Amino acid sequence: MKYESQRFVSRLTRDTLALILAGRRGSRLRDLTNWRAKPAVPFGGKFRIIDFPLSNCINSGIRRVAVLSQYKAHSLIQHVQKGWGFLRGEFNEFVELWPAQQRVDTSWYAGTADAVYQNLDIIRGHAPEYILILAGDHIYKMDYGEMIAHHVETGADMTVACLEVDLESAKAFGVMGVDEAGRVYDFKEKPQQPQHMPDRTDRALASMGVYVFNTQFLYEQLIKDADSPKSEHDFGKNIIPEIIGKYRVMAFPYRDTQTGTQAYWRDVGTIDSYWTANLELIGVTPELNLYDTQWPIWTYQEQLPPAKFIFDDDDRRGMAVDSMVSGGCIISGATVRHSLLYSNVTANSFATIEDSVILPDVDIGCKARLKRVVVDQGCRIPEGMVIGEDPEEDARRFHVSPNGIVLVTAEMLGAPLHYAR
């Protein structure tokens, strides 16, 4: 039976076109998105955020994928071009970049629904049976084939993937009311008083921003929405509330297929959540398993030498404890504790790095001390600089988050403005 189910799902995924909405800045990430869109922000030592929905598509058997970009997309475009060009066009497999092009009129994308609407002519050319719409800025591993199969089996016009969250957290999501069969009868975007689940008064069902549509049904709803002058042209604010009373909209609970419990999902949309999600990966058995050979996360990374740790004197020892260190790093007589270092980081003699996330191509000077910091790509930390020990002093030079995490960028250190790679 399991084998037959997998074959059934694979046929459905071959008839699916995935659209990844990757045009957001992600302003809550502050200066990390001054020069790159949120989906292009590095994550997990060697990946970009966009790699997770892209990998989910490939691992699910969906081989027709479009990435819809808009805000400062240069680094995103470069990454997708370099790392995701391995599909075979002659087999109708692709990962394409669809930048905002004013294809309909002189407007840029006004909302998530408008981004899809403005590309209807391209979508029609691919003639998919189903359309999978994804947010490009979340960290998770999900078999979309199971969701598409659920969509077909329940006879849905639209299916929404959902998480169980506490009522306070639900205020930041689109919250659904569902009946016992899983049909959505209510949907409110970021409500101040979220509706709780039927069987849990302390939990709510939150939309993940992952949708499956029957293609013809989606065409009709997008055209209708585009003709509405009062609409904000957004799936959560307009499309879903408009259709739930008239059509069959189903919820798909996102769960671990083996345990039946809530699966891993993170919105790394703030400096605090970004720092936390990165450092979670250092744990002995983190919820997100990057070493899972059954569900690999694909990416592009330049060919680099192994990480190197040099000097073994009593007062100058290159070492990393309870940490993850990526290729190209040189720990030269420095001490790294409970930190995640991305590629090509150099930590010089007597420097100490603790509870920190260091993005690629950072040089940390001799005797510098970093604690509870996020250091952006390309920074040069001067010799002897101390960050993360004096909140008042840090706030004068850098951005300090509500939980005391210090964000450091090259511009904050006085370097010329530059775009992020």
UniProtKB/TrEMBL annotation:
SUPFAM superfamilies: Nucleotide-diphospho-sugar transferases (SSF53448), Trimeric LpxA-like enzymes (SSF51161). Its EC number is 2.7.7.27. GO terms for biological process: glycogen biosynthetic process. The record marks 70, 108 as: Could play a key role in the communication between the regulatory and the substrate sites. Pathway: Glycan biosynthesis; glycogen biosynthesis. The keyword ATP-binding applies. Residues 18-280 form the Nucleotidyl transferase domain. It holds the Pfam family Hexapep_GlmU. Alpha-D-glucose 1-phosphate binds at residues 109, 174, 189-190, 207. Residues 305-408 form the Glucose-1-phosphate adenylyltransferase/Bifunctional protein GlmU-like C-terminal hexapeptide domain. Keywords: ATP-binding, Carbohydrate metabolism, Glycogen biosynthesis, Glycogen metabolism, Nucleotide-binding, Nucleotidyltransferase, Transferase. It catalyses: alpha-D-glucose 1-phosphate + ATP + H(+) = ADP-alpha-D-glucose + diphosphate. InterPro entries: ADP-Glc_PPase, ADP_Glu_pyroP_CS, GlgC_bac, GlmU/GlgC-like_hexapep, NTP_transferase_dom, Nucleotide-diphossugar_trans, Trimer_LpxA-like_sf. GO terms for molecular function: ATP binding; glucose-1-phosphate adenylyltransferase activity. It comes from the Bacteria. Involved in the biosynthesis of ADP-glucose, a building block required for the elongation reactions to produce glycogen. Catalyzes the reaction between ATP and alpha-D-glucose 1-phosphate (G1P) to produce pyrophosphate and ADP-Glc. Homotetramer. Belongs to the bacterial/plant glucose-1-phosphate adenylyltransferase family. This is Glucose-1-phosphate adenylyltransferase. The gene is glgC.
